[in-house]
Amino acid sequence: MTLSPNPPAPADLLPGGPCWLELPVTDPRSARDFYAGLFGWTYELDRGHPVALVDGVPVAGLPPTDRFTPWTLYLLSPHVRATAERAYALGGAVLRNPAGKPDRTRSTLIRDPTGGVVGFRHVPPDWRFGTGGHGAFAWAELNTRRPSTADVFFQELCHFDVTQIGDGHRVDYTLWSVRGRSVLGRQRMGRAFEPTAPPHWMVYFTASPEVGTDSVADQVLRLGGRVCVEPYDSPQGRVTVVEDTSGATFSVIDPSRALVLSEDETGAGNDDPYDD
Fold first, then answer.
1. Which tens digit of pLDDT belongs to each residue from 218-250?
2. Which end of the chain is flanked by fewer CB atoms within 10 Å, N or C?
3. What is the DSSP letter of 61?
4. Which residues of the chain have pLDDT under 50?
5. Distance between CA atoms of residues 46 and 94, nearest Å
């Protein structure tokens, strides 16, 4: 996992890499207040829809909806129709046909063969997606019970290089890379997940060292949310898993608190509750 300290310029966005986040919300005011209180997000309106900002850079959209929807990750695609057709040919399902939007993007939504839902988006040359600073996007991973199927599907769809960083048994976690840069992760869902939990994408937001993961978790509770997994140390940083007031789940990570493991500990047990 590589956390970028600055918002990438449009030219730095990689095909298949994250380019946007959306949380469709049934109560826009409540959602805006929660994330403003948690991360200090400010907002601007884009054709009537709130866009969250960190240090003046867009980091997420909060479009209104009439039903609960979890956080949705969008990956960069040079041609979303071709991506949708390829995903279908590889055994996925197209949940939303490619369509243009007023912000000059074009998007589609797919379900991979293992059940995870993710979007693909074509963006204009001046597109901005902040990945630096407290409350900005940090990382995303697909949690699935069919890890090999997911690796093959996205390798074929996005031309990812796939690298196993666990031992493949106790810890089955792969990094998906483009042009030598890690852009996403894939984790096998083990005993730590409820048997009925569906495959899903987990989105991570950054906690600055000055604030810290534990303080963010405390603030979630004060704002009426829920802490699903208490803060724990990992080789990537200190992590917590939380829910907002609508039930949307996400993770928060402070990468400055990375746990250093010896060679003997790599792939073995540590404090990560998701290890088997």
1. 999 999 999 999 999 999 999 999 999 999 999
2. C
3. E
4. 1-11, 266-270
5. 26
